[in-house]
Amino acid sequence: MHDRVHLENSYWAVTLWPQWGATIGQLIHVPSQHALIRGPLTQQDLDREPYLFGMPLLFPAGRIADGQCHYGTEHWQWPRNDTAGPNHLHGFLWNKPFDIQMKSETQCVLTPATDTLSLLTHYMHQPLAVRVEYALTQQFLKMRASFTNLGRREIPFGFGYHLNICLATGWQLSLPPGRAWIMGPDLMPVRLARPGELPHAEWLHSQWNPRDLVCDMCYTVNSPEHHVVGFEDADQHQKIWLHAFAPFGHWVLYRPHKTADFISVEPYTWVHNAPHLPYPPKLTGWRVLKPGEKVETLLVWESPI
Predict the structure, then answer these.
(1) Residue 11: DSSP 8-state
(2) What is the CA radius of gyration of the chain?
(3) What is the distance between the alpha carbons of residues 171 and 225, in angstroms, rounded to a whole number?
(4) Where are the alpha helices (DSSP H) in the chain?
(5) For residues 69 and 154, is the Cβ–Cβ distance under 8 A?
(6) Which residues are CB-neighbours of 199 under 8 A, at least 6 positions away?
(7) Beta-sheet pairing, 189-192 with 155-156
(8) What b-and-e string marks burial along 54-75, b requiring 16 or more CB atoms within 10 Å of the CB?
């Protein structure tokens, strides 16, 4: 399929695809040999469902109504590539080439290739510096990404990952305490759900079986500074934790049907359609990057010792 880079230690084996958005294409938990991430068998699989394998990087993340965003006198028009409506979906990085800046057995730093940066500048109207890093340190896999506005005007900022969790293992999941959003027919959030309004969302912060869920929903955590998604395989007495840090504070859960062999668990810095929602930025994650401003994000996978 694509050129690959391998990182490995006693806890994690990671396969990166630099030419396909610098994504993690495979993640193996070494002690248990569990494959956490759904990987494609063929290039045709990847072409058919490009967001639904690996951990694609999403910038701007999520759905944006009509592909449009306005701020002050600035207007952005992005491709309407969402089959659920005439909306934009998931940005411009997920399948574009990255260059390797540094590589060792346990660390890799990547930046967008020249053509990828040109595409970003075209759609965002300002140049950006983007840096992606994957690093193994003992029982931790750290995923860092940074974005710096190198231009003279502000730009909207919303970033995320499309983590496609393989369900070949009998994982039970748990989300941090938070609230689900009521979703409209266009799969856009309308408002935060009231207590009891979405019964299936009430137990997401306790252990639940992802095979029981069919969904395309948004979820906002109560305390985004440091929150944890838990994975537990009771049969093998195995636990894995995914730590997320602000500005991540929103999650999308997606599972298309009852027989799907995966569930997407997607950390975002903003909720779907944040530029258009009539709610405070504290609820939606809406923000702009000022000239010269830099945002750094961090996810950490942990294998308990």
Answers:
(1) S
(2) 18
(3) 25
(4) 43-48, 114-124, 281-284
(5) no
(6) none
(7) unpaired
(8) bbbbbbbbbbbbebebeeeeee
- As a whole number of angstroms, the distance between CA 275 and CA 234 comes to 41
Instruction: State the CATH number of the domain containing residue 165.
Output: 2.70.98.10
Question: What pLDDT digit, counting tens, does each position of 172-218 carry?
Answer: 999 999 999 999 998 999 999 998 899 888 889 989 999 999 999 99
Q: How many domains does the chain have?
A: 1
pLDDT band at 40 (very low <50, low <70, confident <90, very high): confident
Identity (one letter) of the amino acid at 142?
K
Q: Which domain holds residue 239?
A: 5-302
Q: In this structure, what token pair is assigned to residue 178?
A: 């938070």
Q: How many CB atoms lie within 10 A of CB 201?
A: 21
Q: Cis (ω within 30 of 0) for the bond into 18? A: no
Check if the beta carbon of residue 155 is closer than 8 Å to that of residue 122. no
Angstrom distance (rounded) from CA 67 to CA 81: 8
User: Over the stretch 222-245, which tens digit does the pLDDT of each residue have?
Assistant: 999 999 999 999 787 899 999 999
Rounded (to 5) percent helix, strand, coil in the chain: 15, 45, 40
| Residue in this structure with the two tokens 């490009």, named with its chain if needed | 50
Residue 171 main-chain phi, psi, to 5 deg:
-65, 140
Do β-strands 288-289 and 155-156 pair in parallel, antiparallel, or remain unpaired?
A: antiparallel
CA distances from 121 to 115, 124, 137 (A): 10, 5, 34
Measured distance CA(81)–CA(90) in Å, rounded = 9
